[in-house]
Amino acid sequence: MLKKIFAALALAAMLGSVAPVLSQASTSTYTRSKAISVAESNLGVPYVWGGMSPRGFDCSGLVKYSYNVAGKYLPRTAGDMFYVGYRTHSLTRGDLVFFATIRAEKPTHVGIYIGNNEFINAASSRGVSIASLSNPYWKPRFVGANHI
Question: Name one Pfam family in it (predicted).
Answer without folding.
Answer: NLPC_P60
